[in-house]
Amino acid sequence: MAQKLNITWLDVTDSTNNRAQDGIPTAEDRSVWAALFQTQGRGQRGNTWKASKGENLTFSILLKPSFILAQDQFIISAIVTLGIHKYLQNKGIESCIKWPNDIYAADRKICGILIENGISGNLLSTSICGIGLNINQREFPKDLPNPTSAILELERLAAKPIAKMDLKSELELLLTDIFSYYDKAQAEFLANGNYQALYNEYLANLYRRGEFHRYIETATGKEITAKIIGLDEYACLILEGRDGKRRSFAFKEISYIL
What we know:
The protein has helices at residues 16-23, 75-91, 150-158, 167-192, 196-204, and strands at residues 7-13, 31-38, 57-63, 96-98, 102-105, 108-120, 123-133, 212-217, 223-231, 237-241, 246-249, 254-256. The protein is built from five helices and twelve strands. The protein is an alpha+beta fold. The longest helix is centred in the C-terminal third of the chain and has 26 residues, at 167-192.
């Protein structure tokens, strides 16, 4: 039997991650807060998340993953991104995961994710996963370099206009896919003591994997050409240059040239 979803819908809030943070003392694992509009939506690197009111999915999931060791916390990124990838795939939209946890349709950003973890001892006690998935928005601010949405991608594929999607129904479908991967992670850990199968699936869907592209080293501003090989034991991105030399980069140490 499918698990009943625990979703709190809000018309307006500052940030759904803040609501999830407020819920940590009493809320259950897999509790969700969704808003039609966020006044202070947060993205990675301290950025704000821009979304038109009532057109996209902006929500946060509170997980209490007592089975995940602190050293394995990157599996949360794999769980969430693979769930979103599966949801889009079910819609007929091909997507890739841009390390560590953005979702791209071709070279256009369709989803951003901000994950905030809490650690107790050697365990991951809480994980707040803030997700902004563009659904019905057709026009975006000019300062966003490469946005897209589910409706734009579907209209591109169909070559005709399509009706807007119901956000509440779409959120339920999306959460079902995300929680399916949450269950897979727990089952894999109990069976094997690791998450290798999920990591392999994450890597198989990684944006630009195995292709030479240009990147910027953040510390020096130097442009390099390299291909993504995979992740190291610390979930850092491994890049290989044309000379065959490999280097690992942590989050914010490398930026993509799109």
